[in-house]
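Progress report, Aim 2. The chain analyzed during this reporting quarter is listed below.
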Amino acid sequence: MNIKSILPRSKQYPAGQNPRIKAFYGELRRRLRKSYKAAAEYARNLKPQIVQLNATGYQYQLDPLMMSQINSYIEALLNEIIYGNAQGEWSAGWWANAYASGAYQQAAEQVAAQTQLLAADAGVTQELPSLQYLRAEAVVMEPGFQRRLGSVYARLFEDMKGFTDVDKRNMAGIITRGMAAGQSPRVIAREMEKKGLEQDWRCLRIASTEVNQAYRDGSWSETDAVNDEVFGDSDYMLKVMHMSALLPTTRRDHAERHGTICTPAEEREWFATKASGGQINCHCSEVNILVNRKTGKPMNTKLRDILLKQKSEWTPEKV
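Predicted structure tokens for the chain:
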């Protein structure tokens, strides 16, 4: 077997999702900046009472009703621009779905392709009748695939709701604090626009987090599905081998896991309970490896040998 057909093209970005992350980031940044600009225009249209003492000041009727109106406007604004409807509800046509489904589908197709290669290399294809029906291009048509993808959509939507909650507080806070301080509508609007330009790093972080996590979810869930539907009670099973990004900034415990062979459930558990930073802005990935169920040993040791050599050559960033 050509090992290169299994290993990712880039050691630094093993999930291969950078183009998709860049596209998600660009679209989210555009929409978020549009939201802040609209909120700035709202601020410009505030109607204060101008008072003259030693200097010109501005007074606003800042009561609970006014604050409620501001909050309602901002919530509807973000919902419309980010989610496509004033209620902020999920829909099948939501623009962000495509980035999660693309990453998940790519991982699922790679699991199917890697399974075929690994089984052929180990000489066990004839022992697995169901393997003939496993085709990368057919994976997405399976009912189970669509069901598993639905859970990825749900998590993405929930995470994005948390993301926009921060912007909701930012926008409302800038307006109400400015009104309480007696600032002019123009000053409040300028502060709003400035705040909008400072959100790029958040857009990049959530784009990187969500796309890579969707890819890992695809790898884990479809590996489980292949074990159930193809390997069944045979002597073989698929496991995953952790691949760290091995960047200078890679978290040490993520790098140290490079080359670790485990089940998808164990990999999920590690991310959830032990990995520093969890999956936030994490570029780690996995490749599949075929294991003898009775001995627990991999059928191909070359893959792991390569990863362990890569880990030995990694140099962390000096602080």
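The mean pLDDT is 92. Residues 241 and 287 are 5 Å apart (CA to CA). These observations will guide the mutagenesis work planned for the next reporting period.
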